[in-house]
Amino acid sequence: DTEVTQTPKHLVMGMTNKKSLKCEQHMGHRAMYWYKQKAKKPPELMFVYSYEKLSINESVPSRFSPECPNSSLLNLHLHALQPEDSALYLCASSQHGTGFFGQGTRLTVV
Amino acid sequence: EDKVVQSPLSLVVHEGDTVTLNCSYEVTNFRSLLWYKQEKKAPTFLFMLTSSGIEKKSGRLSSILDKKELSSILNITATQTGDSAIYLCAVYSIQGAQKLVFGQGTRLTINP
Fold it and tell me: Which of B34, B38, B98 to mutate to test the interface with A (most CBs of A within 10 A)?
């Protein structure tokens, strides 16, 4: 099983809403990532969790709040987002030099 | 700061041509270099390279790593319109934490 599952696939939210993105993997990978990707740009790293601890936060605004409840799950809590936060949000996991991506959540902030 | 640079950023060729995409990197504690193909959604994994000079091959795609030159190339022979995509190079490093850093990508367009 080389699958990373993200839900939901699409999300439209207002600027005052609170929502969460979810990511799950059962490959036993101990590093999990959130990336943000705008159209025609490469993925930009947001957060890295290593062994369920936040190890990298790439100066992401506090309206994005990651959480790693266990070694298989990664959440991204969203609150008071701006329209410019609309993007494809990708989750990935890695171990031993490989990296696998979920299908992403396409987020639109209205 | 870790850096991955791809070239060219954009390439348009005719079906049947052969293309070479380039990736160079400067990272601390290099572990591997990964190539991905991205069409409409998430990047899909193509190759993982860890050792210099050993070519990885999958059908019409092949890739090789040069650790001395800190670079890699991705070759696609006999291109087809279905090869049109963004090709992303990423470097996996460990410095305190595991990290995957991406290049800007090469947008490849294959015209019939």
Answer: B98
